[in-house]
Structure formats: structure tokens, C-alpha cells
Design a protein that fits this description.
Radius of gyration: 21 Å
Shape: globular
Low-confidence stretches: none
Helix content: 25-40%
Bound molecules: adenosine-5'-diphosphate, magnesium ion
Structural class: alpha+beta
Mean pLDDT: 94
Strand content: 25-35%
Largest sheet: 9 strands, antiparallel
């Protein structure tokens, strides 16, 4: 593909906050962005230069997008693969439908890891009741996850025995699932890898993630991990991007269990919530990188300019003692190094991602202390303390 120059149109499937931040980054470079999303009140649609309001599979909507844009990307992995395939007949689509498909389905994702010798946690693919009847007891206590359409902990049930797993599977409509052993996690980390159409790759600094109730709550960058773990995470993320033939920004989420292994949890074929710190803290943001790759422009430098801690802002904060209120933004902005990002969603609901605050500091410790102040002002739990430095990585057996 020839390069798409600033001033031309880039297309985006999906209208959420990741799309909004993509629009803003692409627009800063002078691109125009056309968003296709069915929602009337979509965070990306509100800032895009044009918004095609149709279903993702609507022929006329997809035509409008390809008439205007030479290249299209996506901002959420559950966009129908058929829509991406249709677009690919008329324009460049990055990442390709085939690589998005692997991340859309936990069964395909786990098989991909196993086939490529990438370590994951112990798990079982569940397609029939017999699979659960014969499930190894070592997988319990475990988590039964639907293969498709899960996010932010949705589609997941904790199960402590085969019987419970069979019941949960029946209640969930007997859809294909993955049963995972519940691991004792020392830490969770993620690596954002960027790969352009020529196969050139770069990674952002490793991020350390704290989840609460299955939703990302805090991200600390750079992660408080040994160099060895950081290097290994980068190596694995690049291997995944390469094996997928991936073109775009890809996030690889890792588990660091108590025993010092490094296991892939899941991948997301797009910029990621854990990479939001890159907007304020890195030379190039994950969204600018997505736009550069889509337009066939050189990858940007991923160096981090200041340590950063990101706190997610969920809709819960709009409700205080049973009353609806606006969170105290002025108090947040009074704290040195705090940067507020709200996604323009009009309807706060508990658990809904409404925005985030990135707090910069001279050191990770000072960014954490300031993030603690922001958390107190907002009435959320402060970031948790770091675990002691990890032991050596244990040699990795192939995936099980
Ligand atoms: P989602 O698509 O919702 O992000 P994940 O599989 O990443 O789904 O699960 C969300 C979070 O739940 C993880 O980041 C982790 O905190 C916890 N979790 C998921 N699977 C496991 C597991 N096998 N063992 C321990 N914790 C887990
Ligand atoms: Mg996840």
C-alpha cells in the first residue's frame, strides 16, 4: 500500500472510547476519520469528522466507509469478522480479520498459543458436557469463561468442582467455553506490541495491571518487574504478533503466578486500556501508533518520558450515598501531574468505563503517591503496594 497522507480519510469500525482516542490522535496528525457505529451517542462518533450510523454488517454503511477511506481499522474485537472481510475486498484493513478472529474466540486463542509453544495457564476446552465430566480435578477451583463475547470479566463464572462447572455451563446456555485453573497471581502485566506492514516491530514499556472485579482498575508503567520478566514479556508479545502476521497495535495480557512463570492470559487486537498512559507519558501514544500503522507511516518512538500511574474512572463514582453527583474533578486536577480523560458518555452506570486519570511523577513511587491522592479525592481504593521483587523466571514447559 502506498502511504496515506495526513489530510486523507481513515476509517474506524466501532464507536467506543478506544475509537474516540484513536480519532483524536489521528486528527492531531491532520487525518480525517470516518467512524462506522450504530450508536447515536457514541464516544468516537462524537469527535469523528464523519459518523456513519449503521449496523456493522449493513452493506450501504460499509460501502460508504470504503468509498471515503483507503484504510480501515477497528477499536473493539467483537466487530463481526464478516464486516472486516467485506471491507477487505475494497480497502486496506489493519489488523486483518483472520488475526482479529483468533482474539475473538478464547478457544482459538488458546489453541494458537499451544500450537506455537507459548505458555498459558492449565485449561480445558469445553464444547460438550463430556468435556466437563472428564475435567482434570487439578483445574479446580477454576473459572469457566465463554469462548466469545466476554470482556471486563463478563461471561466468567467461578467454579469449584466438576458438578458446579456442569451446572454453570448449562445455565450459560451450553455455549463453547474454556475452563481455566484459577491461578494464584503475584502480578498481572501487559505488553503492547506494534507491528507495521513490513513486519517491523516495537513495544511499549511493560505495564503492571491491577484488576478489581474483573475490570482493570490501576495500571503502573513501567511495571515493577525484573528486567528478565520485562524482556521475556516483550519477546513473547513479538512472537505472537509475528506468528499472527499481525499489522497494528496488539496487547498481550500476562499472568505472573506465584511460582515465577510468565503465562499468556489473553490478547486484544487493538490498543488497550492498560496502554492509556502512553497518551501522556510516551513520545508516541498507542493511538497515534495505530494511526501511523494504518496509514503506512513509520512507527513512532515508544520511549516513556515519565513514570505514570493510570486510574480507571467507572460510572460508580457518579453515585454517592445513593445520590447522583458529579465527581470532584477540580480536586483531581489540583494534584500535580494528574491528567483527566473523560469519554463523553452521558449515562454513568456502575462498572461502565467513563474515563481515566493518568498521573505522572518523577519516579514510579511519586506517581503512585500522587495516584493515591487522586484515588482518595475520588473515593476509590488506592493502588496496591508492589509485591517483593520476583524470583528468577522458571524454565517454561510448553503450554498445557
Ligand atoms: P476479560 O476479557 O474480561 O479481560 P480475562 O480473562 O482477562 O477476561 O479476565 C479478567 C481478569 O480476571 C484477569 O485480568 C484476572 O485478574 C482475572 N482472571 C482471569 N482468569 C484468571 C485465572 N485463570 N486465574 C486467576 N485470575 C484470573
Ligand atoms: Mg483481560
Amino acid at each position: 500500500m502506498t502511504t496515506i497522507a495526513p489530510g486523507e480519510w481513515l476509517g474506524l469500525l466501532g464507536g467506543g472510547q478506544l475509537g474516540r482516542m484513536f480519532c483524536m490522535a489521528a486528527q492531531s496528525m491532520g487525518f480525517r476519520v470516518c467512524v462506522l457505529d450504530p450508536g447515536d451517542d457514541s464516544p468516537a462518533g462524537a469527535v469523528a469528522d464523519d459518523h456513519v450510523r449503521t449496523d456493522y454488517l449493513d452493506e450501504a454503511g460499509l460501502n460508504e466507509l470504503t468509498q471515503r477511506c483507503r484504510a480501515v481499522t477497528t477499536e473493539f474485537e467483537n466487530v463481526p469478522a464478516a464486516a472486516m472481510k467485506k471491507l477487505a475486498d475494497h480497502c486496506v484493513v489493519r489488523p486483518a480479520a483472520e488475526s482479529v478472529a483468533v482474539a475473538q474466540d478464547r478457544i482459538q486463542e488458546k489453541r494458537f498459543m499451544v500450537n506455537n509453544g507459548i505458555a498459558t495457564g492449565p485449561h480445558l476446552i469445553v464444547q460438550r458436557v463430556d468435556d466437563l465430566e472428564g475435567a482434570p480435578l487439578s483445574l479446580f477451583p477454576g473459572i469457566l469463561k465463554t469462548a466469545r463475547l466476554g470482556y471486563d470479566g463478563k461471561g466468567q463464572t467461578s467454579v469449584s468442582s466438576r458438578d458446579e462447572a456442569i451446572h454453570a455451563w448449562s445455565r450459560g446456555g451450553r455455549v463453547p467455553c474454556v475452563l481455566e485453573q484459577r491461578l494464584r497471581l503475584r502480578q498481572e502485566i501487559s505488553c503492547l506490541v506494534c507491528r507495521d506492514a513490513d513486519g517491523t516491530m516495537t513495544t511499549f514499556p511493560i505495564v503492571e495491571n491491577e484488576h478489581r472485579g474483573g475490570i482493570l482498575a490501576v495500571a503502573v508503567a513501567p511495571a515493577r518487574v525484573t528486567q528478565e520478566i520485562a524482556d521475556k514479556a516483550r519477546e513473547v508479545a513479538q512472537k505472537i504478533a509475528e506468528k499472527l502476521g499481525y499489522v497494528g497495535v496488539l496487547c498481550v495480557e500476562f499472568f505472573v503466578p506465584d511460582d515465577g512463570r510468565l503465562l499468556v492470559n489473553e490478547i486484544a487486537p487493538r490498543p488497550h486500556n492498560s496502554g492509556h498512559f502512553t497518551i501522556d507519558a510516551c513520545v508516541t501514544s498507542q493511538f497515534e501508533q495505530q494511526a501511523r500503522i494504518l496509514a503506512g507511516l513509520p512507527l513512532g518512538a515508544t520511549a516513556q518520558l515519565a513514570p505514570a500511574v493510570m486510574l480507571n474512572i467507572l460510572g460508580d463514582l457518579w453515585f454517592h450515598n445513593g445520590e447522583r453527583r458529579e465527581p470532584p474533578w477540580a480536586d483531581v486536577l489540583r494534584i500535580g501531574g494528574a491528567k483527566l480523560h473523560l469519554y463523553g458518555k452521558r449515562d454513568p452506570r456502575p462498572g461502565r468505563k467513563m474515563g481515566h486519570v493518568t498521573v505522572l511523577g518523577g519516579t514510579v513511587a511519586s506517581a503512585l503517591a500522587r495516584a493515591g491522592d487522586v484515588a482518595r479525592v475520588l473515593g476509590i481504593e488506592p493502588p496496591k503496594a508492589s509485591p517483593p521483587p520476583t524470583l528468577q523466571l522458571t524454565p517454561q514447559p510448553a503450554s498445557q
